[in-house]
Amino acid sequence: MDFLRPASWEEALAAKAEHPTAVPIAGGTDVMVEINFDHRRPEYLLDLNRVGDLYEWEVGEESVRLGASVPYTRIMEDLRAELPGLALASHTVASPQIRNRGGVGGNLGTASPAGDAHPALLAAGAEVEVESAARGSRLIPIDDFYTGVKRNALQPDELIRAVHIKKADGPQQYSKVGTRNAMVIAVCAFGLALHPGTRTVRTGIGSAAPTPVRARAAEEFLNAALEEGGFWDNGKIITPSVAKQFAELCSAACNPIDDVRGTASYRRHAVGVMARRTLTWTWESYRGTRNTSEGAA
Amino acid sequence: MPANGAPTKITQGSQTKGGIGESTLRPDGTLKVTGEFAYSSDMWHEDMLWGQILRSTVAHAEIVSIDTSEALATAGVYAVMTYDDLPAEVKHYGLEIQDTPVLAHGKVRHHGEPVALVAADHPETARRAAAKIKVEYRELPVITDEASATAPGAVLVHENRTDHHAGHVPHPNIVHRQPIIRGNAAEAAERADFVVTGDYYFGMQDQAFLGPESGLAVPEEDGGVHLYIATQWLHSDLRQIAPVLGLPEDKVRMTLAGVGGAFGGREDLSMQIHACLLALRTGKPVKIVYNRFESFFGHVHRHPARLHYEHGATKDGKLTHVKCRIVLDGGAYASASPAVVGNASSLSIGPYEVDDVEIEAIALYSNNPPCGAMRGFGAVQACFAYEAQMDKLADAVGMDRVEFRQLNAMSQGTIMPTGQPVDSPAPVAELLRRVKAMPMPPERQWESSEGPDVRQLPGGLSNTTHGEGVVRGVGYAVGIKNVGFSEGFDDYSTAKVRMEVVGGEPVATVHTAMAEVGQGGVTVHAQIARTELGVAQVTIHPADTQVGSAGSTSASRQTYVTGGAVKNACELVRERVLEIGRRKFGTYHPAWATAELLLEGGKVVTDGGEVLADLVDVLEGEAVEVEEEWRHRPTEPFDLRTGQGNGHVQYSFAAHRAVVEVDTELGLVKVVELACAQDVGKALNPLSVIGQIQGGTTQGLGIAVMEEIIVDPQTAKVRNPSFTDYLLPTILDTPTIPVDVLELADEHAPYGLRGIGEAPTLSSTPAVLAAIRNATGLELPRTPVRPEHLTGKA
């Protein structure tokens, strides 16, 4: 195995162009496990640890440009206000040691349906900034990014540079079911973001289908129900029947399997429960901020 | 004062600092916490090679061919070995039954069975080379449960059995069967006003010690080998290793290396023989270290069990009878299965008084992973089932569950199902009273002014509930565990104690072959020596086979048995020291001849406290050394038809109260508190006692809510051999564990102590299950309980 150590982003792109089979490694929290257990034997490892700007982020007007290697710990501590859903998801990633090393770029590169960041990215709305030496950079909408089980939309000569995530314009929540209370791979996960600006709701489901997915039918149903009832304006409590139907549609969006971590039937059920709860939490929060701002006005 | 020099009956006082009863700190504690302790996997030798084991990829198959040529041709490879390369006539080993081939011969019987060995100059080279060995298998049908094991025409896991259980088992795929019949359960059942039955399943738990199997074998000039190894019993290893190497035992020297946990998983051999074979074959030191994946295949697990119980009681709540049948899955090789059967049967009704019982326990041979010793050893599985039954029966009778247990609790004088009287304190009712009397943890601890603290809720930081669906439940359980090896086993230990003057100070050296696996024996031995010999300085000699056997570090026995051996050797040393004193100084003071003498604070003193001499002066120019075996009182085998016999040495009791909060919609569990009350006889080191109780409690929690090796029932292959999917409790899963320690002396045991390490593992699991049942109203007949069981989505 050859170990490539580019000193800059340009060198990294050149190395990837020259060795398209090279596996990028940053925190190593996924790749090293696979290598140690001999599940994977890449011909080349492309070490991105010397590419400093991958560890940086910028908070813009509309979105946060999050370097691919920014560790989860930083997201939890420094981007809680801008990216509340992703910050909650980051909390659930493995152990403190892993959160100090791992970043969203790795989650995206591996594209495992169980990656903790995906539901939060889907719910918030994000674009993945990828680049190749030959064709320069492009932005892949998160909805088009996951193409199959552990497959993504990257070309062999491309590397993930950053993720552009919309700054929260409303409450966001994230829940994950695992069979212990910390340091666990998701049995299933659910992200929900309210976007009062566009009066829409977005969702993300993890570990309950071959890829991370949005529950589009559930979103459409809820968007319509909220619009119809004037909920965004009147801030009423969402009726239990609406929440229930939303939850059922989220369950229906799943296409899970039975495995050692849980049954398909449980995953569908749990996604529904998380959908209902996160909707309640976010909506309560939305009503709270709405009432507070009205009171202040 | 006996003039003949016979040991005095004096129990030394506790005038010497750091003696028994004090919470002296572990000598290796700081090193372990700071990461500086050298574990067996840290060893290194100049010029050493790395050993690698090729394991079967299928559970049951004939080996058609093995082609090692490509592996042998790999640069850096020094040796490749298969069954055909074994050097001695003896090619099998085993704890009790020698049924385990050193390397597979003609057939593999479980997933991950060792088939071939490689030694190379780099671990990666060894691993690559092993992967190049081509093994052709012809798969056989797999035996995975009692039905497939005993079906007409079932494939025999072991053909032509000649072991000493072969004659009395009902089927060759049953390792051992132990019935226990006492009274007349059928007649007694007619007196019962209430009868409850239940079928229970206990999953396969892994010891999951953190230091994987590892060791270093160094060939020696005399043709022998020196093995540095993490194990639980050096001499048991030695007895199994030497014959297959074709060496006499004195040419196999063994030294204990740093052990990173054991819990029963190091009672059987793992890589010991393999490392020695490769070292002798290559003439170079060979190190083998398993990774976590291999570790799951490299040691036996806790027997999964199916248990059927029938309990009866009169309307005033007295137990009438118990019938039970326990089927333990021993997997492909016998390991400790026969003894586990003995425990499961003899302790199957729990710490209760019942005169009429009908008990049967069996262990299967199957193609599942081999199972053997693990903390609690057969008593754990039974406790899970009988405590569920006791709750059911209390409910049927209409009594409080704790009072029902107290009403039927055994006490000193109770006769066990085996006919053996319980002849030391058995404070079962008192332990239940104490654990029930502890204050309850406050409700809704997650609530705070800043919103819910999810760490206090089921799901923890995964943020699955802010209180929705959360219901509290409370459950109680109590258990009984035997201490020491039972059924007539000669369960002795040896200690060598030396006393001399070093650097102007009296120093005691304690040398035993006891495996320190974390239990704290090294701490306790020094405390005993200080108490008995009145010295401040005690050196604990590294454990090796240059001294006699200390028996196994298991069965909660080491403080009792090796501690007893150290105490005994110290007493003999003390007598010799006093003899020297009398010889040197007897004429200076009449008390040398008339008073009872003690060693305290580095001096010889009378029982009245008068100083007669400094130990430095007594021992000047003379060293005293004693090596002596020590035995607890003997036990008897259980009758093969009736199960009668004084089979056990001592019993150990613990009770738990579990408080859980269950997210009933998602099926997630937060164990809020696991309160424990345990009788320890005498706490030689109170801090270590608390540590053992909290550790055992947590291990019991693990099998209640998460820990399980999942074996595919179609292929008998292990599906989750990693810490990614075999989950252990993290600190966020570990509750507050308040401990109430009771010290009722057992007059038969050294200092009155009781073995403590296992009892808390028994009652913890059923207490948690009872609490979850209490919260959910579900029956939950299996453990571990998973979210799908709590939500009806299994």
Automatic annotation (TrEMBL), chain A:
Classification via SMART domains: CO_deh_flav_C
Annotated keywords: FAD, Flavoprotein, Oxidoreductase
Domain of life: Bacteria
PROSITE patterns referenced in this protein's UniProt entry, alphabetically: FAD_PCMH
Name of this chain's protein: Carbon monoxide dehydrogenase
Gene3D superfamilies attached to this UniProt entry: 3.30.465.10, CO dehydrogenase flavoprotein, C-terminal domain (3.30.390.50), Uridine Diphospho-n-acetylenolpyruvylglucosamine Reductase, domain 2 (3.30.43.10)
GO function terms (MF aspect): FAD binding; oxidoreductase activity
A Pfam family this chain is assigned to: CO_deh_flav_C
Phylogenetic placement of the source organism: Bacteria, Bacillati, Actinomycetota, Actinomycetes, Kitasatosporales
Domain named FAD-binding PCMH-type: residues: 1-170
Matches recorded under InterPro entries: CO_DH_flav_C (IPR005107), CO_DH_flav_C_dom_sf (IPR036683), Diverse_Substr_Oxidored (IPR051312), FAD-bd_PCMH (IPR016166), FAD-bd_PCMH-like_sf (IPR036318), FAD-bd_PCMH_sub1 (IPR016167), FAD-bd_PCMH_sub2 (IPR016169), Mopterin_DH_FAD-bd (IPR002346)
From TrEMBL, chain B:
Stated name of the protein: Oxidoreductase
Aldehyde oxidase/xanthine dehydrogenase a/b hammerhead domain: residues covered: 34-141
InterPro entries, per database record: Ald_Oxase/Xan_DH_a/b, Ald_Oxase/Xan_DH_a/b_sf, Ald_Oxase/xanthine_DH-like, AldOxase/xan_DH_MoCoBD1, AldOxase/xan_DH_MoCoBD2, AldOxase/xan_DH_Mopterin-bd_sf
Organism: Streptomyces spiralis
Phylogenetic lineage: Bacteria, Bacillati, Actinomycetota, Actinomycetes, Kitasatosporales
Record SUPFAM superfamilies: CO dehydrogenase molybdoprotein N-domain-like, Molybdenum cofactor-binding domain
Domain of life: Bacteria
Gene Ontology molecular-function annotations: iron ion binding; oxidoreductase activity
Annotated region (Disordered), positions in chain: 1-26
Record-linked Pfam families: Ald_Xan_dh_C (PF01315), MoCoBD_1 (PF02738), MoCoBD_2 (PF20256)
